Structures are given as C-alpha cells and as structure tokens.
Amino acid sequence: MNGDVTPTLPTAAHGATSREFLAVVFRRRWIIIGLFLITTATVVILTLASAHDYASTGRVLVKRGEQESVMMPGRRVEAWEEDLATEAQVVKSWTVRRRAQEMLDSRAKTSADSIRLQPVDLDVQVIGQSNVIEVSYADRDPLVAQRACQAIIDAYIEHRSASGSLPYPKAFFEYELGRVAAAIDSLERVRREFNMSQGVINLGEQSRTGLALLELLLHDRSGASVQLADLNGSMRVMLSMRDNADVDLPVTGIGFINEDALRELKRAIVGQETRVAQLSEQYRDDAPQLVNARATLATTRGLLKREVDNRLQLSRAKMQGLQSQVDTLDKQIAALRTELQEMPAKESRLNDLDRRLFMFKTRYQDLAKDSDQARVTEQTSRRMSILLLAPAGLGRQAHSRDYARLALAPAFSLVIGLGLAFFIDGLDTRLRTAGQLEDTLELPVLASLNERKG
Predict the structure, then answer these.
(1) pLDDT number for residue 399
(2) Burial of 180 (C-beta count, 10 Å sphere; 0-12/13-18/19+)
(3) Which of left, alpha, beta for 219 (phi over 0: left; psi -120 to 50: alpha)?
C-alpha cells in the first residue's frame, strides 16, 4: 500500500472529535442544505403569498348604570368586569351585526359596493380598567374595514339608545286607562238612567221640598176636613129645618149665603102662626079671614121649604167638592209619603254609584299621572349612555412582516438538519474511522493509511 503510516496510540476510551463532527457534516451536507433550502423557500413563498389585513378601530365610552324601575329615575351600577364583558358581547351579538349589515346595505350605492360582515373579523376589547370599548374590524381592503367598523359602532350606539332604558309600558297604561274609562262611562250611564227613571235631580233638595210640600198638604187637608165637618153639621140643621119648621135657624157663619132671607121667612111664619092663633079665637074655622091666614101660613112654609131645599142642594155640591178635595189631598199625601220613604234607598244607591265613580276617577287620574311620570323617566333616565370617542379610522396594516422572526425558521432548519444528519449517520453500520474500528473490535489501531487516488 502506498501512503504514510500514522501511528495511533491505544486509548482507553474514544470520544468524538471536531474532525469527525465535520466529517459527518460534510458527508450529510445535502440533507442539511436541502432542509435549509426547503424551509427558506417555504417561508419566502408563504410570506409573499399571504395578503395583508387592515384593521380599522373606533372607540366608545360606556356610561354604566342599570335602571331599577320605570317609575323611579335611580340607577344601580354593577361590577366593572361583568358589565364591560357583557357590553363586549353585545357588540358582537347577532342583533348588532344584523343592524350593521342593514346599514351597510342601505349605504351601498351599487351591489358591487355591498359588504358582507364576517364575525371572525370583528374584535372587541376593553381598554385597561376604563369604560372605553375599542371596536376593531379587519379586512384586506382598508376602506372596507373602515366602513364595516363604523357600521358596527353606529349599530351598537343605536341599539343601546333604544334599549338603554326600561321601555315605556305603553300597552299596560293604554289597557288600564281604557278599562277605567269604560267603567266610568258605564257607571255614569247607569246613574243617568237611574236619575231619569226615578226622577232624581237633587236628592237632598228634593227631600227638603217633599217634606215642606207634605206639611202644606197636611195643613190643607186639615182645613178641608174642618170645612167638611162644618158643612155636615149645617146639612143636619137644614134637614131638620126642612122636616120641622119649628126648628130654629142655625147661627150666622156656617157658610150659607143670604141667611137673612131665611130669617125673614121664619119670622113671617112665626108671625102668621100668631095671627092664625088670634083669628082662631075670634072666628070659626070656616071663616074667610082664618082660611086666608092659614093659606098664607102654608104658602110661607112652602117658600121656607123651597129655600131650604135650595140651600141643601148647594150644601151637597159644596160637600162633594170638599170631599173630592180631601180625597185628592189624601192621594197626594200618600204618594208623597211613598216617595219620601223611597228617598233613603235612592240616596243609598246614588251614594254607591258616586263612591264607585269617585274611586274610578281617582284611579284614572293616578294612572294618567304615572303614565306621564313613566314617559319623563324614560326620556331622562337611561340605563347606559354611549359616547363616541373616536369614529372608525382608515384601516391600518394589522400584521407587519417581522424579518428577524422570519429568519428564525431557516436558522432552526439548520439545527434540525444537523440533528437529522447525525441521526442518519448513526444508522450507517460502515466503519469509517479508526475510532469506530477500535470501538467495534476493542483493539488498538496502531497505524492508518490515507486513501490516495491516482
């Protein structure tokens, strides 16, 4: 063999040397270089092929506070983390996104300008320990990102403006006011019909007037009864006078007219009777003077009887009139007493109707007042107030290329390539160095010859 002989001292243990390390690297250089080139090419292709995203951001200030009642303007503030985290989810909610999509569709001039919102491109964050919410939307077109972000902010502000306060309970108040108004109309109609059917205008005044009228009617009836009693007495006297001419005339003032005529006839009868008695003493019964005197007496008595009969007829007529007056007064008194007896029941009925009317009218006034108060509270006390701090700006590049980090991938590929090279080299069972031979045979190598070509 040609070549120099290199003596090799036996060693107890053999370790890898830098020369062996470099020999392995040189032998497996294509693995290391290939992995490096493939990694570098992949990083370059992905970097150049990936499109830039532009993010547009806007900020709103949330003034928190939950309204407890629509009738009271007071508000209750919840915990900061819970409230702001909830608002962040509200911004991402389907309701806000749907309204934002409607705004974008209405603002689009043509169908080509329409923008379709993507939930994955929307991001909402709370700035530190503040009440400021940052809304961000990313898109490859910076103008599209700006328009979409502004639409979401506008939709959120509109949503909170509409739902930030307890809504005015319109249906409740309209139903209650209508129900109470209908009850009032019904009670007023019943009261009016009751007044018309019972003839009630002013019950208190009617009661006082009825009592006064009853007293007057009783007084008139008493007077008529007295007159009727007097007339009955006069009638009895007149009947006695008619049946017996010797009865004395009644006293003056019993109600007869032209009583002097009766007295004159009575005197004439008495005088004629006296003359007849005197003539009877002087003449015989058939004497002309006595016959004539008796005839005159009979004529005078006939005149008295006729006059008495006329007076009786007048008295009977007057008695009938007085009796009719008394009967009429009795009917009026009975009707008036019946009406006065019914007054307490009517008064109780009217008091009940008035009490119910007062109750419903008071209820109506309270409802109207509460309705006005609810409207005022709705407009002046809101659960949340949203203030736009910064509108959506023009989209900025979301992820810039960090070349230092991009260079790490090829660098790590060299490390991985070296490891892979040593791993593959370790699988090779061929003996290439003196150290490998000593490790395998466990005998020292005394000399080695370098390979020469030629």
Answers:
(1) 57
(2) buried
(3) alpha
